[in-house]
Amino acid sequence: MRWGYGALLAAVLGGGCWVNPADYWEEADYEREYRDAYCTWSWRCFGQGSGYFSREDCVDRLEFSAGDTEACVYDRDAAQRCVGDWLTLSCEAGEHNDFPQICDEVYDCP
Asked: Residue 44 region, left (φ>0) first, then alpha (ψ -120 to 50), else beta?
């Protein structure tokens, strides 16, 4: 399993208490963390050119939709890796629309 920098930072700043993020990543957690990771990346790379006034504005306004996922199987590990990949994605990769492919695997739908 690949750990995101956020989980490692939380463990270090939290006094060494380690919680496996995959243990608590429900779908609502994924939506929140995805929005935060995407907006962090977008603001870091493009600033106001991202179409938002700030990273927080992006988090508030970004429309997250995975579509109708009621009949789908949610993959917590893929969700965690997707968010981690957004946090480490280079700005150059984004300029070429080379976005994290693992995000396409978060939901397995019939």
From this structure: alpha
